[in-house]
Write a structure and sequence with these properties.
With about 400 residues, this protein is α/β, with parallel strands linked by helices. The protein contains 15 helices and 11 strands.
């Protein structure tokens, strides 16, 4: 079993002296005047030390995400380029590049470069992106899916076609495409996506792309099973556990007493929070319109589980109830180990993604302390389980 660490790359550290907004959150877009040059410089220095430490601890992958106007990583490719020089073993997982926002030929070139710089450790994650990013880049909601699909096909052909070719599509038009360098991994880096709508799950199955699911155990299983069933019924292949992954927020402490000490003040506020940069009453109506334009009535009709429940209901739960829901991993090392093994078995998934970096938790404090504890106590058990399964 593999464990990948998801990074948040929050803007908080670089503007912490200037946050004075309601509930300590900042609306999209973050205004440039909030940026603190000295804090920002130190934050990136600390980030590189953090990435090096995750690699040293033996985690299987490190995730880099793309967000615009709300986090400090608008270009995960740039950060991964730096990470290739401070890591040796971990996969560098781009989760991901938002295809509708970018030039797909340039993206194919950059990812091939990164694959060579890392000597074949790149995992290429492709996403549609958020409605706020589509708003920022002026991408019509009605074109998001078609842009994504065409860009993906163009990237893969650029990776795999060894001869110059023309491309004349609905969204992209090139007289010649012929990229160098070629990807280090052949025919190209492994590709994953995060998806929940029926349309996106069907696309992932049709392209044999690995799938990361979120939500409760039941909700994630429904998502993965829709993908699995469509692949087998319509696409002529059967995804294995190696193509199925779960994404979880995590809080681990040495003892359950430590969990209970931090539950009300730290875990409950984080558990109720969706995204630290989103405020109630989204101030830009067009973003909500873009969300609606992307989906159809059938997008989530396959689900019997919708959402995470009311905020008030989540706030009243105990650590054990939060862990039982499954969209969070909460507990001491023994409990976290049991939760991961149980969830991966229930969802037939071979990769668990954990995110201990949330809210105001200090990167060089509680976040790295959690990863150190996890690496000492949980990771060896999961790797041993993987070895037994392979044997």
């Amino acid at each position: 079993m593999q464990v990948w660490v998801r990074q948040t790359l929050s803007f908080r550290q670089a503007i912490e002296k200037k946050i004075e907004t309601e509930e300590g959150l900042v609306r999209f877009p973050v205004p440039g005047w909030m940026w603190d040059l000295e804090l920002g410089r130190d934050m990136y220095d600390q980030r590189m030390r953090h990435i090096r430490r995750i690699d040293e601890l033996g985690f299987d992958g490190i995730i880099f995400t793309e967000q615009h106007y709300v986090t400090v990583c608008p270009s995960p490719n740039l950060l991964v380029a730096a990470a290739t020089q401070v890591t040796e073993q971990a996969k560098l997982v781009l989760m991901g590049n938002c295809l509708p926002l970018h030039n797909p030929v340039r993206l194919a070139e950059e990812l091939a470069m990164l694959d060579n710089l890392s000597r074949g450790r790149i995992v290429a994650g492709f996403l549609r992106g958020t409605a706020s990013s589509h708003y920022a880049f002026n991408v019509p909601g009605t074109e998001v899916r078609s842009r994504f699909a065409e860009a993906y096909d163009l990237v893969v052909r650029a990776w795999t076609d060894e001869n110059p070719f023309e491309w004349h599509g609905d969204h992209y038009d090139y007289s010649v495409v012929s990229i160098v360098p070629r990807p280090y991994q052949q025919p190209h880096p492994p590709v994953w996506t995060v998806a929940g709508s029926a349309e996106s799950l069907e696309w992932a199955a049709s392209k044999r792309v690995g799938l990361i699911a979120q939500g409760t155990i039941q909700g994630a299983n429904e998502t993965l099973d829709y993908y699995q069933n469509y692949a087998e019924r319509e696409c002529g292949w059967s995804p294995t556990a190696a193509s199925r992954a779960l994404n979880r927020d995590m809080y681990i402490a040495p003892t359950m007493a430590g969990i209970r000490d931090r539950f009300e003040d730290v875990i409950v506020p984080l558990y109720m929070q969706t995204h630290e940069y989103e405020m109630p009453n989204q101030p830009i109506p067009r973003i909500a319109e873009l969300r609606r334009e992307e989906y159809s009535p059938r997008s989530y009709a396959y689900r019997t589980v919708q959402g995470r429940g009311a905020v008030g209901d989540r706030a009243r739960r105990s650590p054990e109830q939060v862990a039982a829901d499954g969209d969070w991993l909460v507990g001491d090392p023994d409990s976290i180990t049991e939760q991961i093994l149980r969830q991966c078995q229930a969802c037939n998934a071979d990769t668990m993604i954990v995110r201990p970096e949330m809210g105001t938790l200090a990167l060089n404090g509680e976040v790295i302390d959690q990863l150190d504890l996890f690496a000492r106590t949980v990771l060896p058990v999961l790797h041993k389980a993987q070895s037994k399964q392979s044997a």
